[in-house]
Design brief:
- The chain is α/β, with parallel strands linked by helices.
- Helices cover 47% and strands 13% of the residues.
- The protein has helices at residues 3-21, 31-43, 52-70, 74-81, 86-116, 121-132, 143-146, 157-181, 193-230, 256-272, 360-365, 399-405, 427-442, 489-493, 496-521; strands spanning 238-242, 277-279, 289-290, 312-320, 323-331, 341-342, 381-383, 386-392, 412-418, 446-451, 455-458, 464-468, 474-478.
- The strands form two sheets. Strands 1, 2, 3, 4, 5, 6 and 13 form a seven-stranded mixed sheet that branches.
- Strand 11 and strand 12 (464-468) form a beta hairpin.
- The chain is globular, with a radius of gyration of 25 Å.
Length: 523
């Protein structure tokens, strides 16, 4: 095998991944999601006869290329908050991109192995991409999560979830690759010769283009139904505060009075516009607070300061029994504090150290950030007609986090985030796009109070109805619907039905292929 034959597909896969990355902000070339994945499927084509190791290399190259583009905010963040230079930031970006590219390496290996077993190549590719979405990552993203500015494309998430929508996109890409390669995707030709090959390619091309078009049409109709039903639901007026607190200033205890004074002023402005609840972002309250207290802070550290009546839902750093929690709770007008919601899914290396992070002396050694303890269960934050489940920081980018938040059937989803660490980069926009699909999966309105990021209101159809993007401190007034709808199929069953169906389909093709092979050997 010549060098061009050996390494050419890897180069194509790397370029295809970079192309897919351009579908994210600021380029927003949404067709690149399908074209990029189709190019990866193409270099994995050939009826599954390739070696799994070759597939892994091509998948890893694809994932590395995509993450180099999508997570290019890493170097400037490291330069800003560490003593490392830009060169070290580039190295970190490359390492993160390769690490996160492992998900696509897994996808490619599954694709190759299923193809060798007799599963049609376009089905094998879809199953592979679906399997890859279960691989853990620091900045977890999926094509479905990033295509949310086209809400019509994600409406099936209430049935199959984020991963299921990604599966549909991958199946479409696999069909396009089969059309381009001339393979029948594992289906024996019925008409031999050039004409039969052309007809098969036309069939797969039509199916590959038709699948996203049908998804769009069905999604458009579903959005209309959801919005019509939402119109009959009660609403509540909420003020979302963006305090514009610098990432480093947040941890400077001498700046606590200044930060709290700004939050108080913004809350006064929110309540002057008839807000029934004001929400501060993640860890917005600038002082550590007792995890066991059920009384709001008073005096100079009061949340309900001069001119503030409450209620205020805010993020805290809470302390208890020598542990630290990333928490949220409501300070009510009578001065009581609700039972806090503790963040369950901590950010690896940002809030906890994987594997050894649960060892007490490790948490004590890394007390700031990486010494946090995860919560055990979702705690609904209630005030009046509002029953809100809080997703803190990146919890709103995870399907499992969304399902946990729906366990007690809240009528509203709330996200509290501090994106000051990424201010001026595209990370905040990526975060919002990934969060949108949680509203569709659960069919609940979601409101997001984000420090130095896009504070926003997403309705139950995944439509961003309002957003505040300014780096200046301000308040976004929103009127989300309080929806009491029953749990969606996805919230009830999660990914299990889709995964089980894919396993059954794959096994059926493998058994069928082996039967044909045995029949040829034993006529």
């Amino acid at each position: 095998m010549s060098p061009s034959q050996r390494y050419g597909p890897v180069v194509v896969a790397l370029a295809a991944g970079a192309l897919l990355g351009l579908a994210g902000p600021p380029a927003n070339l949404y067709p690149a999601f399908w074209v990029g994945m189709a190019a990866l499927a193409y270099v994995l084509e050939g009826g599954g006869r390739g070696r799994w190791l070759d597939g892994a290399g091509r998948g890893l190259a694809f994932g590395t290329g995509a993450n180099l583009v999508l997570t290019r905010f890493v170097p400037p963040v490291l330069v800003r908050f560490t003593s490392l230079g830009f060169a070290a930031g580039v190295v970190a970006l490359l390492l993160i991109s390769v690490l996160q590219g492992l998900a696509w390496a897994v996808a490619a290996v599954v694709r190759v192995q299923l193809g060798r077993g007799g599963v049609p190549s376009w089905v094998a590719f879809g199953v592979g991409v679906y399997a890859g979405t279960f691989v853990p990552a620091v900045f977890l993203w999926t094509p479905a999560g990033l295509v949310t500015p086209l809400p019509e494309m994600i409406q099936l998430a209430e049935v199959v979830g984020d991963r299921g929508v990604t599966l549909l996109m991958a199946l479409s890409a696999g069909l396009l690759a089969s059309a381009a390669s001339g393979h029948a995707g594992g289906i024996p030709p019925r008409r031999p010769g050039v004409r039969g090959s052309w007809l098969r390619s036309a069939l797969f091309l039509g199916a590959g283009l038709g699948l996203p078009l049908l998804t769009f049409a069905e999604g458009k109709a579903r959005i209309a139904r959801v919005e019509r039903d939402r119109a009959d639901a009660p609403t509540v007026r909420i003020g979302l505060v963006q305090p514009s607190t610098d990432a480093v200033a947040r941890w400077d205890s001498t700046l606590g009075p200044e930060i709290l004074a700004r939050l108080t002023s913004l809350t006064q402005a929110s309540e002057s516009e008839a807000a029934e609840l004001t929400i501060w972002p993640e860890s917005a309250y600038p002082y550590p607070y007792s995890h066991s207290s059920r009384k709001c802070p008073v005096g100079a550290k009061a949340i309900l300061g001069t001119g503030v009546r409450g209620p205020v839902l805010t993020g805290f750093l809470m302390l208890g029994h020598g542990e630290q929690f990333n928490s949220s709770a409501i300070c009510t007008p009578d001065g009581s504090l609700t039972v806090p919601e503790d963040k369950i899914r901590l950010l690896a290396f940002g809030e906890t150290i994987p594997v050894i992070g649960r060892i007490p002396w490790v948490r004590r050694t890394f007390r700031r950030g990486t010494g946090l303890v995860p919560g055990q269960r979702n705690v609904v934050q209630a005030w009046g007609p509002i029953r809100a489940s809080v997703l803190t920081c990146v919890e709103d980018t995870l399907s499992d986090g969304g399902r946990e938040a729906m366990a007690d059937r809240p009528n509203l989803l709330v996200n509290l985030t501090n994106d000051a660490w990424f201010a001026g980069t595209r990370e905040s926009e990526l975060h919002l796009r990934l969060a949108v699909i949680r509203a569709v999966e659960s069919r609940r309105d979601m409101i997001r109070a984000v420090n130095l990021g896009p504070t926003s209101w997403v309705d139950a159809a995944g439509v961003v109805r309002a957003r505040y993007d300014s780096a200046l401190a301000g308040v976004l007034q929103v009127t989300p619907a309080l929806l009491e709808w029953r749990l969606t199929p996805f919230d009830r069953f999660g990914d299990f039905p889709t995964a089980a169906l894919l396993v059954l389909v794959s096994l059926a093709h493998i058994v069928r292929a082996r039967g044909r092979k045995g029949g040829r050997l034993n006529p």
